[in-house]
UniProtKB/TrEMBL annotation:
<comment type="function">
    <text>Controls the rotational direction of flagella during chemotaxis.</text>
</comment>
<keyword id="KW-0283">Flagellar rotation</keyword>
<dbReference type="GO" id="GO:0005886">
    <property type="term" value="C:plasma membrane"/>
</dbReference>
<dbReference type="GO" id="GO:0071978">
    <property type="term" value="P:bacterial-type flagellum-dependent swarming motility"/>
</dbReference>
<dbReference type="Pfam" id="PF03748">
    <property type="entry name" value="FliL"/>
</dbReference>
<keyword id="KW-0472">Membrane</keyword>
<dbReference type="InterPro" id="IPR005503">
    <property type="entry name" value="FliL"/>
</dbReference>
<keyword id="KW-0997">Cell inner membrane</keyword>
<dbReference type="GO" id="GO:0006935">
    <property type="term" value="P:chemotaxis"/>
</dbReference>
<comment type="similarity">
    <text>Belongs to the FliL family.</text>
</comment>
<feature type="transmembrane region" description="Helical">
    <location>
        <begin position="23"/>
        <end position="44"/>
    </location>
</feature>
<dbReference type="GO" id="GO:0009425">
    <property type="term" value="C:bacterial-type flagellum basal body"/>
</dbReference>
<protein>
    <recommendedName>
        <fullName>Flagellar protein FliL</fullName>
    </recommendedName>
</protein>
<keyword id="KW-1133">Transmembrane helix</keyword>
<keyword id="KW-0145">Chemotaxis</keyword>
<keyword id="KW-1003">Cell membrane</keyword>
<keyword id="KW-0812">Transmembrane</keyword>
């Protein structure tokens, strides 16, 4: 009888894990692995993202300097015998304050060039929009010319009309 009781006794339950414990262990390992992988990806991506904008960010564009000239009144060329006048106000769009200072130092020469060029125009040439655009381009070229032979040309980005009256 002793032999029958020994065979009928069950093996202790702690030696073999049940199917629920195995599933929990596998899920726990998978969650830990996914967390470690996610943390590694976040670490490397945040390091890369922090260094990328500093290297690829373009410098901010330079703030333009606007320089208003005193309005000018000029007699225009006329073929019909009548006297025509042009009253014009100009603002220059420049690249820097240094350019403005250089132009201000030579303003009497620049105004003289502008007055001579404007007095050679016909009212019919200045009436259409294309005529005004061509005049702005011509005036920018005249203003940018150096005042002396060893000087450098000024950088005039644009000539803006603030007043334009033809009579």
């Amino acid at each position: 009888m002793a032999t029958t009781t020994a065979t009928q006794q069950a093996a202790p339950q702690g030696t073999q894990p049940g199917p629920l414990k195995r599933v929990l262990l596998i899920v726990l390992i998978a969650v830990l692995a996914a967390g470690a992988a996610g943390g590694g990806v976040w670490f490397f991506m945040s390091r890369h993202a922090a260094s990328a904008p500093a290297a690829s960010a373009p410098p901010p564009p330079a703030v333009p300097v606007y320089y208003a000239l005193e309005p000018m009144t000029v007699n225009l060329q006329s073929d019909d015998g009548e006297t025509h006048y042009l009253r014009i106000g100009l603002t220059l769009k420049l690249d820097s304050q240094a350019t403005q200072d250089a132009l201000a130092a030579h303003m009497p020469e620049i105004r003289s060039r502008l007055l001579l060029a404007l007095s050679n125009k016909h009212p019919a040439d200045l009436a259409p929009l294309d005529g005004k655009r061509a005049l702005a381009t011509e005036l920018a070229t005249l203003i940018a010319q150096p005042s002396d032979s060893r000087g450098t040309a000024a950088r005039v980005e644009d000539v803006l009309f603030t007043e334009f009256v033809v009579q």
